[in-house]
Write a structure and sequence with these properties.
The complex is a heterodimer of chains A (343) and B (289). Chain A has helices at 9-13, 19-38, 41-66, 74-92, 96-115, 124-148, 163-185, 188-198, 200-205, 210-236, 246-259, 264-288, 298-316, 320-334; strands at residues 154-155, 238-239. By secondary structure, chain A is mainly α. Chain A has one domain (39-334): ABC transporter involved in vitamin B12 uptake, BtuC (Orthogonal Bundle). The longest helix of chain A has 27 residues, at 210-236. The radius of gyration of chain A is 21 Å and the shape is globular. Classes of the chains: A mainly alpha (343), B mainly alpha (289). The interface between A and B is large, with 48 and 42 residues.
Chain lengths: 343, 289
């Protein structure tokens, strides 16, 4: 026997236990800290989008990837957070420290409502009921816009002025979300979510309250999503119902599919992929010399290419980017062997 | 009276779209969220054949119908057969991905302009008096076509060899396969028929109101009708369409025209809360301890 032994409980609790892990983590922290000073305006914008998106993606991953509850109402929840912020700001001039908790509270409430059908429905029917709720939230938002005369959208003053400032705000929010998710997942709650994902009947037999686990998954996920929506509203400085189309939901679902189900790293990798994808398409079109001819239909090219990529991942790499990463890592770890030796 | 006619036409639209959802779900337990896009593709098929066979409208319509049938079979053979046996989420997501792909491809091929296939066929859409109300010719054709499709499907599923096989495959795929029924053939046929009826709905709506991006939304709005009636029942689809269309037309008429996009989904939520398996659907097996 050889290897690394844990001899104290504190070591069991530590998120980073080996020296290598700590070293790599330090490298990551330094890299993330230095990035905004090296990147240009476009780089900063992309980094901010990734950070913002990863909050929503982690939230969806908790719900769908871990607890196994399908939701097609993610854009609706983002919209709920953004509209709560927008309405409070417009009507009462509320500052960030009121709008952020208020958005979270609205998110939690909606999570409860979104989650209630999950107690009776599963799989397909659940997906459909969340889809229905999406349309209703968007309708209410649009109704507010037209009734109050903000037909083009609500303009919000951002408390953070520079893109670099935003980077650190969003980095802190994303890091907090990931930390919260990591800790939730290794606690009783997270284990209960994985158990109901595996099989509800067995989870129930093990003493897990299935309704409670399902509702907590919905509430946690939608609270985080609504917070992301609130940050989105401040970041864009603008809220409108059109921004939260079904396509946004599809993008978030694509993030967790492409990243890899059941992995927080996957959620982040998927976000990077989905955010950078349109720019990659732009670059490809420019390289092929068709950018000018297609300039009026860029969004259509994006749609089509996005569909193709999603299909390719679903068919050929259901484990997503994380699956590829694990295979590559194992290849190096086991080299020169192809399989783990049978000990 | 006009309200009743409006309800009938809208219900016919929903019912014609719904039977695609029901066919695919009943046979292969997959929910196709690309149905709206496939509908639109059918309509664009008519637009293309109408300019190709100018002067022979009937040939154009027949060609467009055949095209829609083939597209459906092709969708199954190219994509969906890989998804059989995968989780519900994976199959639904595959149809969503297909939907975006088709939407992008259609914009690239046909542009975003509103098209009028009826004009290209060389016909006009006169308004006819019926029981003291007015109905457009295409609207009347829609109602008749829906009736014909439902009667045809009933006959096909109950009396023809392939229809009986299809029902068997839907009821118990394993047993059906053991009795020598080729499941892939049946599934492909179901996708073909669903796309054919959906494409027909798309063509008729395009003839009535013009062919543009909103067609996809109509396809999505028809889907609550299928669920309210019960996802695996054709009779349910008819009843569900009638319920949704009635609620929608009455609320638009008396409350707020903006409600049009929401009403079907609100009715759906109410239904899911009370009777998730729909009015006529079979109750799913629950694995409770």
């Amino acid at each position: 026997m050889s290897g690394y032994f844990r001899t104290r409980y504190a070591e069991d609790f530590a998120l980073l236990d080996t020296r290598t892990q700590k070293a790599w983590f330090a490298v990551l922290v330094v890299a993330l800290g230095v990035l905004p000073f090296l990147a240009g305006p476009l780089g900063l914008e992309l980094a901010n989008q990734v950070l913002l998106g990863s909050i929503g993606a982690v939230a969806l991953m908790l719900l769908t990837g871990y607890a196994g509850q399908i939701s097609l109402g993610h854009a609706g929840l983002l919209a709920a957070g953004a509209f709560t912020t927008g309405i409070l700001f417009k009507e009462f001039g509320a500052p960030l420290w009121i709008t952020l908790p208020a958005s979270a509270a609205v998110g939690a409430l909606l999570g409860l409502i979104f989650g209630l059908p999950s107690l009776r429905l599963r799989g397909l029917y659940l997906a459909v009921s969340t889809l229905a709720l999406h349309f209703i939230v968007i309708f209410l938002g649009g109704e507010y816009e037209t009734k109050r005369g903000f037909s083009t959208g609500i303009v919000i003053d951002s408390p953070v002025a520079s893109a670099r400032g935003w980077y650190f705000v969003l980095l802190a929010a994303a890091a907090a979300t990931v930390l919260l998710a990591l800790n939730l997942l290794r606690s009783r709650t997270g284990r209960a979510w994985r158990a109901i994902h595996g099989r509800e009947a067995v989870a129930e037999a093990l003493g897990i309250s299935v309704p409670r686990a399902k509702l907590s998954a919905f509430v946690v996920s939608s609270t985080l999503t609504a917070v992301a929506g609130c940050l989105f509203a401040y970041y864009r400085g603008f809220v409108s119902a059109e921004a939260f189309s079904l396509y946004l939901t599809i993008q978030y679902v694509a993030m967790i599919i492409i990243g890899g189900m059941g992995s927080l790293l996957g959620a982040v990798l998927g976000t990077v992929f989905v955010v950078l994808f349109p720019y990659a398409i732009d670059g490809t079109m420019a390289a092929l010399g068709v950018a000018e001819r297609l300039s009026s239909v860029v969004f259509a090219v994006n749609y089509a290419a996005f569909g193709v990529v999603m299909i390719l991942f679903l068919v050929f790499e259901p484990q997503g980017l994380v699956g590829i990463w694990r295979r590559v890592r194992n290849w190096f770890v086991l080299w020169p062997f192809r399989h783990k030796p049978i000990s | 009276m006009q309200v009743a006619v409006n309800i009938a036409v809208l219900a016919a639209i929903y019912a014609l779209i719904c039977c695609g959802y029901v066919l695919i779900y009943r046979v292969s337990r997959v929910l196709s969220l690309a149905h709206g896009e496939l509908m639109m593709l059918g309509a664009y098929g008519l637009y293309a054949t109408a300019s190709l066979f100018g002067g022979h409208p009937l040939v154009a319509i027949a060609a467009a119908g055949g095209l829609a049938l083939m597209v459906g079979v092709a969708v199954y053979l190219a994509l969906m057969w890989r998804m059989t046996g995968e989780s519900v989420l994976a199959a639904v997501l595959a149809t969503i991905a297909l939907g975006i792909l088709l939407r992008g491809a259609m914009i690239l091929m046909f542009g975003t302009q509103t098209q009028y296939p009826l004009r290209d066929l060389g016909w006009s859409n006169a308004s006819l008096p019926v029981f003291g109300a007015r109905i457009s010719t295409v609207g009347l054709v829609l109602v008749l076509a829906t009736a014909a499709v439902y009667v045809g499907l009933f006959g096909f599923l109950h009396f023809s060899r392939w229809g009986i096989r299809m029902r068997a495959a839907g009821q118990h795929p394993l047993l059906a396969a053991q009795r020598g029924i080729g499941l892939h053939g049946i599934y492909a046929l179901a996708w073909g028929l669903a796309t054919f009826t959906g494409g027909m709905a798309g063509m008729l709506i395009a003839c009535d109101a013009g062919l543009e991006g909103t067609l996809v939304i109509i396809g999505l709005k028809a889907f609550p009708a299928a669920l309210v009636g019960g996802l695996d029942s054709l009779v349910g689809a008819l009843v569900g369409s009638l319920v949704i269309a009635t609620a929608e037309v009455l609320l638009i008429h008396h409350v707020d025209p903006l409600l049009s996009d929401v009403v079907p989904f609100a009715v759906l939520l109410a239904m899911l809360a009370v009777r998730p398996w729909g009015l006529f659907g079979t109750r799913e097996e629950l694995d409770r301890v």
